[in-house]
Design goal:
The chain has 93 residues and is mostly helical. The protein has a domain of 65 residues. Helices cover 49% and strands 0% of the residues. The chain contains four helices and no strands. The longest helix is centred in the middle third of the chain and has 14 residues. The N and C termini lie far apart (45 Å). The relative contact order is 0.13.
């Protein structure tokens, strides 16, 4: 029986494709969970061979919520060669 690869290894291989990485990050954005988005960004960075630590522990505010400044998000995306786009959600089901 062939050995199976760990989930993380498979995910990183999957995210090496730019279109898949973009779809993955868009899915993470739709979850509206900053911690999940940061984890997704970290996974895409790993897939691109970048060693980035977005410092989850340093991003918790007084209320215990994960805080991410707009400029930090833009910088992270730029480092990955990505950017943000706007879409019409008025027709969403």
């Amino acid at each position: 029986m062939p050995k199976s690869r760990a989930y993380d290894d498979e995910l990183i291989l999957y995210l090496q494709d730019s279109q898949r990485a973009i779809a993955y990050l868009n899915g993470a954005l739709e979850e509206e969970d900053p911690e999940f988005l940061l984890l997704a960004l970290q996974n895409v960075a790993r897939a691109k061979g970048k060693t980035v630590d977005f410092g989850f522990g340093n991003r918790v505010n007084e209320s215990g919520e994960l805080a991410l400044q707009w400029h930090e998000l833009v910088k992270m995306l730029n480092e990955l060669g990505l950017g943000l786009a706007v879409k019409d959600t008025s027709q969403a089901a």
